[in-house]
Amino acid sequence: MTDLAVHDTRSRWRDFCRSSSVSFRVGIVILALHLLAAALGPFLSPYGATEIGAGVPLSGISLAHPMGVDQIGRDVFSRVLNGAHIVILLSVAGTALGLVLGSVVGLLSAYVGGWLDEFIQRLIEAFVSIPYLVLGLLAVYAAGPELAGQPVLMVVVIAIVYAPRIARMARAAALDVVIRDFVTAARLRGDRAWSIIWRDLAPNTASTLLVEFALRTGYAPALIGAFGFLGFGIQPPSPEWGLMISENRNLILATPVTVLGPGLALASLVVAVNLTAEGMARMLGRSVDLAVR
Amino acid sequence: MILRLVALRCFTAALTLLLVSAITFIAVELLPGDVATSVLGQFSSETARAALRMQLHLGDPPLDRYFLWLNNLLHGDLGLALSSRRRIVDILLPRVASTLILSAAAVLIYVPLALFPAVAQAVRHNRPLDHTLSTVTLILASVPDFLLALILLVIFVVALPVLPAVSAVTDTTDLAGWLRALVLPATTLAVVMAVYAARMLRDNLIEVLEAPHILMARLRGLPNWRILWFHALPNAIIPTLNITALNLTYLAGGVVIVEKVFGFPGFGSLMIDAIRFRDVPLIEITVLIASAVYVSANLLADLVTLLLNPRLRQARA
Q: What pTM did the predictor assign?
């Protein structure tokens, strides 16, 4: 009996591998490397993230410094390894917070309907119409100087940027569900709104929201990087990749690898999550458009 | 009927902008606690703070302040910038003009950059060229814009030493100087925009090329290039209009990054400076303008789609 069950899961796993596309598998592998770097990076890195004098400044690519050495003698490769968990944790936390906020608002809006739905929709439209970078900068400004540069602010900023966009998606998905008979039945049974949203709407929109979450998470590192790059994100001496790219941009003609190294890390993470999300969406029978900005 | 739809769409656009102005006002003037301390810093003198509160009418109730600001805005009175004490109109106009020129250049590069790969991919559907270009666009879609800007900087400044690394333009810059300054920032913006449009246009074209009217045209013996450019492309482009609108909205935020990377003195770098120096009136107006670009681009796309597609006109009515 146990044998049979094991055999069954194994063949299902094999089917899963066979049905997944090549790009999905490539995405998973790169993503796994990133997760590995995030988990073990601080232990594997040959030098410390803020260790000054790890090498000769601007000495370029060498076996000891595969991504070169920055202006004050820090090993860029070690910094990239030490930054992985920062970028990934902030992205996941920010997107998750945005997902929760957005789903609650979107599902509630679809369920309640009427003037409240209309009002929420207009409000969401207003938030979405502020370009995401500008909205994020506005949030950084509103948070005041005390919170500036704190990781928690970055999480909140990503959530604020994503929540309205996720809410719109959640509402659209829930509109197809609220008209179904089992929701009417629950309503007639006298179930409370929260119970219907949690037990009926959330599970039935879960696959849409899951794909949305994956795609948004994929773009979050670029967003964090953009804020770091502009000087409104995580502050030095953190090895956040966008910040590192900004710090090393003056070296781009002397030793391009100090910029392209963290850049490659950032871009490959975004590619990996995008490929994985796209493959996942296809397996769930959904089409995705890449335009998640 | 169609007039009513257009009017309704314009009304919601205006409503959205009104809400944006309220959100901006709340975020800039109400949330950060005491605006005077937030602008002048913790160690400013009490007299300086009091003077600033007077200038910004901070003693008045928030709702009064909001309506006063809105009223002034509608009358074209943008007030003075805090940091430079110059009239905001005078600061804003040249910056907006520069960014409009940059955006126009970006759109000029964007159209062929989106069109040709998509057409090539559709013609060579499922052949190596199609797969290669798909991979390239996918990777480009994943490279953040600030990184793309730096990569282009390395490639072009090293390969074509005529291009400046810093795209500074002033009143005295001549045409050649402007063109040199525009190439890199405009190309960066164009690539970011084109990637999405090219991917979408490719899918649409492939779908349209299998439609009955294309088969009919083939059977009538029309040359392939004629079928492609005059029969398939116009039909495939309509859904891309929404992406183009989305791309114009990308420009409103994208210029912030790209202008910063290349040191281009436009609207985007003005906004960054306004936030860095906590220049309250300047932040409010720049955010509002950026949103206005988004709202009007979407409005335009909706109206064009409405006018181009008679079926949609009836379906919505």
A: 0.86
